Amino acid sequence: RKVAIDASMCLYQFLIAVRSEGAQLTSVDGETTSHLMGTFYRTIRLVEQGIKPAYVFDGKPPDLKGGELAKRAERRDEAQKLLQAAEEADIVYLLGNAEDVEKFNRRLVKVTKTHAEEAKQLLQLMGIPFIDAPCEAEAQCAALVKAGKVYATATEDMDALTFGCNVLLRRLTFSEAKKMPIQEFHFDKVLEGLELNHNEFIDLCIMLGCDYTNSIKGVGPKRAIELIKTHRSLEKIIENLDTKKFPIPKDWNYKQARLLFQEPEIIDPETIDLKWTEPDEEGLVKYLCGDKQFNEERVRNGAKKLHKARNTSTQGRLDTFFKVLSSPNPLKRK
DNA sequence: ACTCTGGCTCAAGACGCT
DNA sequence: TTAATTGAGCCAGAGT
DNA sequence: AGCGTCC
After folding, report:
1. Hey, which CATH number is domain A196-262, 1.20.1630.10, 3.40.30.10, 1.10.150.20, 2.60.40.780?
2. Bases of strand B lying below 7 A from some protein CB
3. Keywords for this entry (predicted)?
């Protein structure tokens, strides 16, 4: 069963989580390898379960997002760059407590172009397809699902639904699944449960706070649902809202935000041909066991697992692993 | 009292041996 | 300058 | 399941 995955999100998590004594794993020349470690083993695990993953990489963020992100940047630049200096000083003075240093390091994690390129090279050698999205990966994933190129998007990010992703899988990573069951959301069932159509759902998500705009102060999940059910569109809501109690954000460009959800910049899925091919064992060994110092035995073992799973295909039906939770109300969000 | 929002903090992977 | 998370859980405080 | 280790 084919599944689309937001690669940048995965890389980010690996960079944060795959650490030893607070520091990322590295090659001989000090280059980070945490993202490769995570991608390699997680992908093998997925393939062994009969899943065919297709990774989707982010392109440029939409302009509108840039505006919002600038605010976060300010916060960071002010607080964190100064904190950086302060904490570095602390380290010098106090030979810092490791926890602070760790926390600090995690906040500065970024997924760079290089990380992405390295991951792509690894996926190539593993025989796993990937796509460069022109813009938001989640939007491209949703398009792949809609076009039937993959069965679902595997993500923790509920915004995938806003892009109209029909099927969304949460907690697909199986080590975590030991603790928590895999959840499968069907967008049409969610809409049914909320008694909304897609456009109304988009307006709802904008109110709840998306990456593209501010949200209305005082309006959280409860009131937002109430409002959209009563008025069915942001235009009508704005007309009827008591703006003394609930002020509309200044220069609120909800229309543009809406458009980014309705017509995101994507590659036409029909032009995309996803191919899962044989892993290149020697290539993997060469790439991972050179400077990057991966254990050769483990890498070869991984390559063989990929090979084996590939040739025993049509095995794993995901259904055996989880129940379909077409949860009528996933809005525990923000 | 109750509901709701929003601000805060935290944690975040996978393998293999025991 | 080339990167800018997220979701969950807990709790204070405002509003009704 | 817990824990040290992966690089």
Report:
1. 1.10.150.20
2. 3-6, 11-16
3. DNA damage, DNA repair, DNA replication, Endonuclease, Exonuclease, Hydrolase, Magnesium, Metal-binding, Mitochondrion, Nuclease, Nucleus, Phosphoprotein
The pLDDT of residue A269 is above 70: yes
Reported as a pLDDT band with limits 50, 70 and 90, residue A174 is confident
pLDDT digits (tens, 9 = 90+) for A201-225: 999 999 999 989 989 999 999 999 9
From the C1' of D4, which residue's alpha carbon is nearest? A20
> Considering only residues 215-244 of protein chain A, which place a Cβ less than 7 A from any atom of strand B?
215, 217-224
Q: Give residues with Cβ within 8 angstroms of A222, minimum separation 6.
A: none
Is A308 near strand D, with its CB below 7 A from some atom of it?
Answer: no
Distances (CA, A) of A108 to A75, A83, A165: 13, 11, 31
pTM of the entire predicted model? 0.92
Helix (H, G, I), strand (E, B) or coil at A82: helix
Of A154, A167, A184, whose CA–CA distance to A46 is shortest?
A154
- Whether A295 sits with its Cβ under 7 A from any strand D atom: the answer reads yes
Q: For chain A, what are the domain ranges? A: 2-66+109-190, 196-262
Element at A134 (helix H, strand E): none
Per-residue pLDDT tens digits for A29-69 = 999 999 999 999 999 999 999 999 999 999 999 988 877 67
A2-66+109-190 under CATH 3.40.50.1010, yes or no:
yes
